[in-house]
Amino acid sequence: VDINRLETARLFHRFGFGPRPGEFVNAVNAGVSATREKLFANSGTDSGLTNIPQLVLADLGKRPSPNDPQRASYSSEIRRQNNELTTWWLDRMVLADFSLQEKATWFWHGHWATSIKKLNFALPMYKQHQTLQKYALGNFDQMVSAMLDDGALQFWLDGQENTAKSPNENLARELMELFTLGVGRYSEADVKELSRALTGVQVARSSGEVTFKKSRFDEGTKSILGVSQNFDRTSAGKFLVSQPNSKRFITERFWYRYMSSQFPLPANTNIEGAFESREIRELLLALASSDAMKDTRYELVKSPVEWFVAVCRALNIMPSNLSKNSALLNFLNKLAQVPFDPPNVGGWPTDDAWLSSASAQFRASFATWLVAQGDLSPIENLTPGERVQKTADLLGVVEWSDRTKSALEGNVKNSKRLILLAICSPEYLVSA
Amino acid sequence: MDTVTRRKFLQLTAGTSIGAAAAFLSIDDIAAAASSRPLASGTPILVIVTLYGGNDGLNTVIPFKDPIYYSSRPDISYKQESVLQLDSQYGLNPSMTGIANLWKDGKVAIVRGAGYPSPDRSHFSSMAKWQSGSPKTLSKSGWIGRWIDSQPDDPMLAISLGSVLPPLLAGEKKVGSALPLGGLVIPQGTVGADFRKLSLPSTADSKLRSLAANSMKDLFNISEKITPILKKPEPTEVELPTINGGNAGGDSNLTQQLNIVSKLIQADAPTRVWSVSLGGFDTHANEANAQSILLGSVSSAIDKFMSGLKSSKHGADVVVLVYSEFGRRVVGNASKGTDHGTSGPMFIIGDRIKGGFYGDQPSLSKLVDGDLSVTTDFRDVYASLIEDVLKSPADRYLNNWKGRTKFYKAR
Predict the structure, then answer these.
(1) Do B206 and A430 lie within an 8 Å CB cutoff?
(2) Are the beta carbons of B26 and A361 separated by less than 8 Å?
(3) Closest to B198 (Cβ–Cβ): which among A120, A167, A407?
(4) Are the C-beta atoms of A139 and A280 separated by less than 8 Å?
(5) Which CA distances in Å does B10 have to A264, B169, B389?
(6) Of B17, B164, B335, which is closest to A336 when you measure between CB atoms?
């Protein structure tokens, strides 16, 4: 394996959403450290995003009663906003120049895994997205504080039901298990105490607006992980983030999604050390610079959204311009991954979970639909003899196996078919 | 909503993942197998129904004579006159008329207080324990997966409905298969031939790349034999609540899943284990109505499933197991819901089951940290199912577990 191509491909596909035409070859020529530097460079404003239509989301307020004639239009407005929000984010993933941030935002969405299925409204989900976007590469401590003020997360995990009189443990448990520390790094008593610290929050569901009601807050002393004080949600969040286990856990989660879900984070790694200050960008940079990037064991399957976005970037497709928005969302739904709708609070699965024959079938139809609408000129403009290798370069594939090469070579005169097969190939589906 | 949301729960905690290679199949394989090597009648079939989210056992099998039940949850208890009485002390949730009728026919075993030592209240950890069948030292394989390991290679052996495989069916070396919900669309003609080429094995393939190639292999040669069976009208599904309780995984259309399983059993598919699921049981708030609708759906889906199979030659061979990752706290919370608890009832249903109660009802006056005690280890039930239904020695799959629950009628 050409290690230079391997590392370059990993930088593009894992730390971003895949290369645009020409980018991969240029990067291979520029070398890994120059590519990494470029990937991590933030110019401030992302000019790639300027073409995305402004999202208009109004607070829809309370649902009209069943016999109110407004009810039907209210429901269809909910659907419209939800679909628009989803497509808007897909547009961002495809068009962003600063792919590192977009990809990290996607990671954090899977981490805090809040579903619009329970919220029902786009506006609170959009607000959560703004928060995740803001802190995606920022400070984890600040992110946790902001998320505990997030209406969508609070509602998703019944935070508004958690009162001094009767605590509801849902948010407290997941805050430790899934968001900050990891399972088994706290006791059941800690869950109960933490839920007391998180009391007092009320959420307006349609807007995601959070208010704090002192009368619902438990003013007593809470003992969390052996420390007793009058914790509230902010101080408890900060306290959890300050634990060495949060450094370990977040490093493990990035390892799991960016490097390998098959192999655990190696024990003797210095990656974790980069997260001492809880600066997420530093952690990602350490991961992107680590020796693991050269290790061929650490393959990773592209999830359906990652695969779709990478195809769009390579074929210059803007998701909102695709022929039928409902078809797009239906394909993603069939592949079991729609942004803003994770299956559960643990987020989406990884690797072989995406490799069923059912998925293969839906992916093949999805790919056919996409290729018909894509810009194939980067390949069409070449002579047939160059096309197979140049398709690997276009897509950021390290190398074709003989199997795939032979399937592609039978189609060098048919660019559409060639690209269709290439994006469905095991070498593209799996990030080497 | 037909989104497939069953999850690989074992993968959700960092560093854990299923070690085995997935080998998926498609409907054509089942069709071919059903006609070329039909399941012999008399071969027991196990159908596993997983309820995701933590089903509230106390409002499933209700101790309607116990004053502590009523004082513990004033907002969400069921009155004696509303429950479906099973005996003088216990009754089913009012929505479970189908299972109540099966109980009257003597076909329902209810194992009370089922769980495992040192209960874990995390959805993901607890479900991993139930599905691995190894609660103490968490195994990467599932209890059925290890049985699959020991059987001759056969992708039909154990099938899960939906496109994502539950860890239950993952062995160390082999795994069960997944069958998608909804019709298959297969690439035809020359493009089909090209896709077939992509699915060939390559020596250069890594583990995941070879799995990706395999997933395409199974798409082809769809048989016309099974498609018409699957195209028979589907029963309509009650609308399930999605507002509450849905944040812990599981599928949403149990009736549809069991309907497909029923048709494939009737077609003589050589499958010994089927896995289906229903999500939505994580009822931290406003539980009563939501749980009742869900339990009603479970009950009617199983009732329809069993009665649909009555005329089939396999009808008497089917054993249905229903379980959830934990029960819920005895005392309700202020949100008219319940938080994560510990033990709960398991249901085992079938013609060959000796109906009745098994295991002691955990006492409401002797709680452990506010939770129900565990009176029957779920491995007792698993071991009996492996021996009686799967006809295999249970010890090797359950680390020499000795307990058994005798709910099976030898014929």
Answers:
(1) yes
(2) yes
(3) A407
(4) yes
(5) 14, 12, 26
(6) B164
Tell which residue, B121, B135, B46, has the closest CA to residue B380: B135
- How many Å apart are CA B184 and CA B197, to the nearest integer? 19
Give the number of other CB atoms < 10 A from CB of residue B374: 21
pLDDT tens digits, B47-68: 999 999 999 999 999 999 999 9
- Of A176, A345, A257, the C-alpha closest to B9 is A345
Residue B115's DSSP bridge partners are B377
SS3 (DSSP) at B57: helix
* Beta-bridge partner residues of B161: B179
Tell me how far apart the 2 most distant CA atoms of chain A are, in Å. Answer: 75
Quick: pLDDT tens for A299-350.
999 999 999 999 999 999 999 999 999 999 989 988 889 999 998 898 998 8
Chain A neighbors of B213, CB-CB under 8 A: 403, 426
**Which residue from A264, A351, A401 is facing B202, i.e. has the nearest CB?**
A401
- Environment class of B366 (CB within 10 Å of its CB; exposed 0-12, middle 13-18, buried 19+): exposed
Chain B residues touching A424 at Cβ < 8 A: 195, 198, 216
Contacts of B204 in chain A (CB under 8 A): 401-403
In A267-394 the beta strands, taken as DSSP E runs, fall at 300-301
Contacts of B252 in chain A (CB under 8 A): none
| A347 to B12: CB separation less than 8 angstroms, yes or no | yes
Bridge partners (DSSP) of residue A300 are A431
Exposed/middle/buried for B406, CB within 10 Å: 0-12, 13-18, 19+? Answer: exposed
User: B-contacting residues of A 250-269, CB under 8 Å?
Assistant: 252-253, 255-256, 261-262, 264-265
Q: Residue A88: is it exposed, middle or buried by C-beta count within 10 angstroms (0-12/13-18/19+)?
A: buried
Burial class (CB in 10 A: 0-12, 13-18, 19+), B9: buried
pLDDT confidence bin for B29, thresholds 50/70/90 = low
Average pLDDT over residues A98-106: 97
Reported pTM: 0.71
With DSSP H G I counted as helix, E B as strand and the rest as coil, what are the percentages for chain B, rounded to 5? 30, 15, 50
Q: Does B8 touch chain A (CB under 8 A)?
A: yes
Distance of alpha carbon A112 from the chain centroid: 10
Chain A residues with CB under 8 Å of B25 CB are: 357
Q: Does B335 lie at the interface with A, CB-CB under 8 angstroms?
A: yes
B335 vs A161, A368, A404: nearest CB: A161
B95 three-state secondary structure: coil
Predicted confidence (pLDDT) per residue in B354-378, tens digit: 999 999 999 999 999 889 999 999 9
Burial of A43 (0-12, 13-18, 19+ CB in 10 A): exposed
Hey, is the C-beta of A79 within 8 angstroms of any chain B C-beta? no
Helix (H, G, I), strand (E, B) or coil at A203: strand
ipTM, two decimals: 0.89
Residue B272 burial by CB count (10 A; 0-12/13-18/19+): exposed, middle or buried?
buried
Confidence of residue B16 (pLDDT cuts 50, 70, 90): very low
Q: What is the mean pLDDT of chain B?
A: 83
Q: Using an 8 Å CB-CB cutoff, list chain A residues near B368.
A: none
Backbone angles phi, psi at B117, to 5 degrees: -65, 150
* Residues 6 or more apart in contact with residue B343 via CB below 8 angstroms: B57, B113, B114, B115, B119, B326, B327, B362, B371, B372, B373, B374, B375
A:359-398 residues touching chain B, CB 8 A cutoff: 359-361, 364-365, 368
- Least confident stretch, A9-13, A60-64, B27-31, B385-389: B27-31
C-alpha to C-alpha distance for B324 and B305, rounded to whole angstroms: 20
Residue that the structure tokens 């939770």 belong to: B371
Tokens standing for residue B361: 């009802």
Give the whole-angstrom CA distance, residue B196 versus residue B186.
11
